[in-house]
Amino acid sequence: MPTPPPRGRPRSFDRAAALDAATMLFWERGYEATSIADLTEAMGIRAPSLYAAFGDKRSLFEEAVAGFRHTHGAYVARALAEEPTVRAGIARLLRDSATEFTTPGRPHGCLVISAGVNCGSPQVREQLRAIREGSVADFERLIAAAVASGEEPPETDPGTLARLTAAVLQGMSQQSRDGVGRAELELLAAAAMRAWPPLRSE
Amino acid sequence: MPTPPPRGRPRSFDRAAALDAATMLFWERGYEATSIADLTEAMGIRAPSLYAAFGDKRSLFEEAVAGFRHTHGAYVARALAEEPTVRAGIARLLRDSATEFTTPGRPHGCLVISAGVNCGSPQVREQLRAIREGSVADFERLIAAAVASGEEPPETDPGTLARLTAAVLQGMSQQSRDGVGRAELELLAAAAMRAWPPLRSE
DNA sequence: ACCATTCTGTAGCAGTCGCTATGGAAAGGA
DNA sequence: TCCTTTCCATAGCGACTGCTACAGAATGGT
Q1: Is residue A147 situated within a structural domain?
Q2: Which of A25, B32, B111, B116 would be B27's cystine partner, CB 3.0–4.6 Å?
Q3: Angle B158-177/A182-193 helices, nearest 10 degrees?
């Protein structure tokens, strides 16, 4: 069914732009350290408009996370999909993360990894933890399939390799926030890939 | 010079025990998510006693961090010192961290790694960042010395290996807080060590 | 024109934050 | 005993937290 025609006074601000501004703040400071006053100022609106458009703070954060994953997380699926092997895909994922985590002009690191740390709201923590766990499960599934197909050697432990990948990503995110630069993170990423078992060279 | 005899009414609580209680709270919730009310309740004292004995919240945290490093961080130096090679030392450091990060009955992960994330106080963030950076520098120095002595092969990149070690520790800390168990972290730690260049077997 | 609907700005709610002024209680020294 | 010193408990400071009641402004429908 089509969207009914809007009634009443139209919204006077750009909802998507406001959400973007909120996302940047959450990304930079984390969920709890970002106050409603911070948000309304960055979004250019007053508190009642924020609550009318986005619900409470947690709903706004959920929407920001969803938008973040769509806009700034797409490179993950792309890296895994566009490379010919899982190993090459994860190598590229780590390499691209070094770039994504240190892009100038926006917060460093990954919102999903950092924004919920030390957060008082169990729901927010759990929301982000579930996303992270989903990534680990995705990695594991892909690696296990590669082992099953003979692409990766049989002694491979898909679960451990998936967790190692996630751990390296988490470490890279925190280090990028600590000021470590792109070049050093790329070296780190390349080094981490040496943990994979040697490929049978035919 | 000897400590002058105490004058006036003696303190009615155990300062060290109170500091321990504060450390546990900071460790579990992080700096900012731990309120003075939380602290006074856990320490069993009132706010004025806390301020008289420890100064402000940041001073208390600094003292908690120092105590944490002394009590719960000693295993790091021990692992590096007691193993015959740097490689074995870092392997044991990672392995022992899997245990330390998941010990039942106390907070998971590492206070130095997590308690300052998303913290509004730049001083607290910087305090912990400097400790982390010091660890990386220590790792790098040890690895570089091992390369110089021929213990590790010349193609080794000490800086990158040091950063990788730190990244894996950070990832292990966050994952332990996400509920990942000791056994899985030990596998992760062992896998990470495969990133080291192969040893010249003579 | 008038109404229903929806948005916006002002102003402020109750609660918590880190922190402290104040007065009484508990100790040692004279 | 009296004084000094130090600690403790009550109570509360101003600022901030997430959030909202209310009234006015702006739109479309009739």
Answers
A1: yes
A2: B111
A3: 80
Please indicate, yes or no, whether residues B128 and B174 belong to a single structural domain of this protein: yes
pLDDT per residue as tens digits for the range B28-40: 999 999 999 999 9
B45-to-A19, B14, B25, B68, B191 alpha-carbon distances in Å: 44, 10, 15, 21, 46
Are residues A25 and A89 both part of a single domain?
no
Q: In this complex, which residue's CA is closest to the C1' atom of nucleotide C3?
A: A8
Q: Is the CB of B48 under 7 A from strand C?
A: yes
How many structural domains comprise chain B? 2
Residue nearest to nucleotide D20 (CA to C1'): A48
Q: Which domain holds residue B19?
A: 15-57
Q: Which of A29, A193, A195 is the closest to B118 by Cβ? A: A29
Q: Which of A25, A28, A38, A118 to probe by mutation at the B interface, max B CB count within 10 Å?
A: A118
User: Is A37 within 7 A of strand D by CB distance?
Assistant: yes
**Does the pLDDT of residue B150 top 60, yes or no?**
yes
* Same domain flag for A48 and A77: no
Q: What is the CATH number of the domain that holds B156?
A: 1.10.357.10
Q: Which pLDDT value is given to residue B3? A: 53
- What is the arithmetic mean of pLDDT over A38-65? 98
Residue pLDDT, tens place only, A54-105: 999 999 999 999 999 999 999 999 999 999 999 999 999 999 999 999 999 9
- Look at phi and psi of residue A118 and say left if phi exceeds 0, alpha if psi is from -120 to 50, else beta: left
Residue B1 predicted with pLDDT over 70:
no
